[in-house]
Amino acid sequence: MKVKIQTTLGDIVVRLYDETPVHRDNFLKLVGEGYYDGTLFHRVIKDFMIQGGDPDSKGAPAGKMLGVGGPDYTLQAEIKDGLLHKRGALAAARQGDEVNPERRSSGSQFYIVWGQVYNEGQLRQFSKQMKMQMMQNAFNKLAAEHRAEIMQMRRDRDRAGLQELQDRLVAEAEKQVAGYSGMTDEQMRIYSTVGGTPHLDGQYTVFGEVEEGLDVVEMIQNTATGAADRPVDDIEMKLTVVE
After folding, report:
1. Which 3 state secondary structure label does DSSP give 201?
2. CA-CA distance, 68 to 95, in Å (whole number)?
3. Phi, psi (deg, nearest 5) at residue 6
4. What 8-state DSSP symbol labels residue 61?
5. Phi first, then psi: what are they for 206, rounded to 5°?
6. How far apart are CA 41 and CA 132, in angstroms?
7. What is the per-residue DSSP string for 92-153?
């Protein structure tokens, strides 16, 4: 299925992935209801991405803070290996891990990736950081499972016990990520040629990609912005299903 995003700067056609059916079907439902019509690309960061889908942006006066609106539901994450944050990727916005550990997506807000093209050295550094992040995530999950035990040790001021438990959890986290080598060859190829935002892989659900109008995405990401990265001149959109 494809959706046309008509904007004041031109049209963008995105193809939705069948590998992410929850996001695909929700996006099509909202498009069919006219939910997005009149909304803005309310957050634009050059060399990074353009974001829209906040219903509160419809007719929003200049200076109004945007970015927290949406329907009264979120979507289960559909983060899939191989669906990368390459230039032109369509992905779902979400709240941060601290309040959203399941990485559930916003019911309506989305972003289109622009990003950058990286050299081999930069990508190897990203790969190292990604493995460290995976290690940290594994440790945090284990620590959460032992929270009651940790809190009791702190109350008892059992430093030796805390250190022993920490060492055990670190060892277990290292064991869990032992088979992860960082970026795949495909990621290295994509981000050194097409470009994108590799540090977002595995963090947000990618559910489609731009098939036409990447030049329009480029124009939008280059637009002048003000407070909270909102474009100075409103970029309104209307969405329709085209296939």
Report:
1. coil
2. 9
3. -85, 125
4. P
5. -95, 125
6. 33
7. E----TTT-TT-PEESS-EEEE--B---HHHHHHHHHHHHHHHHHHHHHHHHHHTHHHHHHH
User: Could you give the count of Cα atoms lying within 13 Å of 104 in the half-sphere of its Cβ?
Assistant: 9
Encode pLDDT of 201-218 as tens digits: 989 999 999 999 999 999
Name the one residue in this structure whose structure tokens are 């990736």: 113
pTM: 0.87
Residue 165 token pair:
């438990």
Going through 154-230 in order, the beta strands assigned E by DSSP cover 206-212
Distance CA 48, CA 30 (A): 25
Hey, which bits of the chain come out as E strands? 2-7, 10-16, 41-45, 49-52, 74-75, 89-92, 105-106, 110-113, 206-212, 237-241
Token code pair at residue 9: 């700067």
Residues 6+ apart with CB under 8 A from 85: 91, 113, 115, 196, 197, 198, 200, 201, 204, 206
Looking up tokens 């050194």 gives 192
Residues 143 and 135: their CA atoms lie apart, in Å, by 12
User: Which residue's structure tokens are 């495909």?
Assistant: 186
User: What amino acid is encoded at 144 in this protein?
Assistant: A
User: How many CA atoms are closer than 13 Å to the CA of 231, on its beta-carbon side?
Assistant: 22
* pLDDT per position as a tens digit, 3-42: 999 999 999 999 999 999 999 999 999 999 999 999 999 9
Query: Among 214, 174, 182, which Cα is nearest to 86's?
Result: 214
Question: What is the chain's length?
Answer: 243
